[in-house]
Amino acid sequence: MTYESVIGLEVHAQLLTESKIFCGCSTRFGAAPNQHTCPVCLGLPGVLPVLNKKVVDFALRAALATHCTITTTSRWARKNYFYPDLPKGYQISMYELPLAEHGYVEVTAEEQAKKVRLTRIHMEEDAGKSIHDAEAGASLVDLNRTGVPLLEIVSEPDIRSAAEAGSYLRSLRALLQYIEVCDGNMEEGSLRCDANVSIRPRGSTEFGTRTETKNLNSFRAVEKAIEHEIQRQTEVVEAGGRVVQETRLWDADREVTRPMRSKEFAHDYRYFPDPDLLPLVVDQAWVEHVRTDLPELPAARRARFVHDYDLPAYDAEVLTARKDVADYFEASLRACPAAPKVVSNWVMDSVLRFVKEEKLDAALKIETWPCPPERLGALIGLIQNGTISTTIAKTVYEDMRRTGHSPEEIIESKGLRQVSDTDTLQAAIAEVLTANPDKVEAYRGGKEKLLGFFVGQVMRATQGKANPQMVNTLLRQKLSQ
Ligand code: ADP
Ligand code: MG
Ligand code: ZN
Fold first, then answer.
1. pLDDT at 188
2. pLDDT tens for each residue of 29-56
3. Whether the predicted model's global pTM rises above the 0.90 cut
4. pLDDT at 399
5. pLDDT, average across residues 283-288
6. Which residues lie below 8 Å from residue 299, measured CB to CB, with a gap of 6+?
7. Cα–Cα distances in Å, from 312 out to 316, 392, 432?
8. How far is ligand 3, taken at its centre, from the CA of residue 48, in Å?
């Protein structure tokens, strides 16, 4: 019997608002513990929450970018549970009437386009943080994060493999970054994911019993945990057992999932409408206002790159996978508009390789990149007009990254200008030929492959600065004389 895996993801995205969802406290990351708190987010008695309109704007952006239907009147609900990092004893969330439903995210998996449907998107407040390892014999609580706005984005069980889950998460993250509502940083916890996994006999139309795995704080963890869970469930079923519905935790060190709580201990959250908050009414005018404010989304940008710049679909896909990369590409191109494919090669090769090596993840501002895009464009312009060769350009690029100097400065100070002067090249060629009489004879005797050798020698003699096309032409002429 072969099995098919069925996966649904619940994603929590921290919204990039300046202040919290129901009070004016700052959301900034990294402050000393409990600095960003007030009576509202500390859950003191006698205070009332006031909704931050920006949170709704951001949630609407996400809902529209994922093709959701917006609920005109949605409702805040209290999700009740006890935990030391939840001072009110409940989390304000949405339950029966979420802000948005029935959307989808476009995903490419195994070269196939596919829509993963979204069940719902709603807003909620984050809880605080318990710290168990800072002080012996004590647990500490930091409430800076309490009340930070989150979006919960729940997918339908449409995903069929660990790799597809990874693609879905990457597409979703790219979308959230494009619309600038979340920085998408999984390591810092601003994008969190729980994976619901079940298996069923291939061909079956019913779903199997699922487990929910938490504590997945990287793309790798999501994919590994799902793979592990599929494997584990398959082994259980093949040994004649049954999968137990439970919450499991991913242990990143040992690369296994472990049970956390089973259904008997499942939470009963006793949801009810929050009497402190009015229903949220989002009228058509508000929705339209947000819609006109949306930037170009990845799919549209990809199509435009192919159409306007004549780029291969692959290039367009890679370049638009991140908004900052696509912005970088277009800013470079403005400095060198005639050569989109060359600019694309440089961004995909040099720039993305650097981003990868340095693990420059997510919310990066172009200004902090190793080489400003205008400079890269200028450098490519200098290749295009014959000032330097591509090989020299690679070393100039490394220098630009290191020193922050302009390509022109580096080329002048190091004397890297390409030599296209016929007399100088003729002289270098003459020297190389005189030094290698036997090879010249062999070439003339029919060993034409030796041309590469001569070109190499001339390039070496000119420290790589000779114009390669001209060297080729002049060499051929000289050797056929
Ligand atoms: P809960 O509140 O218990 O987490 P939800 O209704 O919010 O339940 O569902 C959570 C997620 O579980 C959704 O992403 C959904 O697609 C997924 N899911 C539901 N049933 C299954 C299943 N049989 N196998 C895998 N995923 C499932
Ligand atoms: Mg859930
Ligand atoms: Zn506060």
1. 83
2. 888 999 999 999 999 999 999 999 999 9
3. no
4. 87
5. 96
6. 106
7. 6, 26, 41
8. 11
Of 22, 25, 77, nearest to 51 (Cα)?
A: 22
- CB of 207 sitting under 6 A from ligand 1: yes
Residue 279 identity: P
420-449: per-residue pLDDT in tens? 788 888 888 988 999 988 888 888 888 888
Distance between Cα 341 and ligand 1 center (Å) = 44
Distances (CA, A) of 298 to 305, 317, 339, 449, 478: 10, 9, 22, 47, 53
Q: Could you tell me the distance, in angstroms and rounded to a whole number, from the CA of residue 325 to the centre of ligand 3?
A: 35
**What pLDDT, on the 0 to 100 scale, is given for residue 367?**
61
- SS3 call for 190: coil
- Planar angle of CA 266, 271, 273, nearest 5 degrees: 170
pLDDT > 70 in the chain, percent? 95
Beta strands in 100-229 (DSSP E): 100-109, 112-125, 129-135, 138-142, 149-155, 191-201, 211-216
* Tokens describing residue 360: 């420059």
The span from the CA of 377 to the CA of 369, in Å, is 14
Q: Which of 272, 231, 249, 21 lies closest to 126 in space, CA to CA?
A: 21
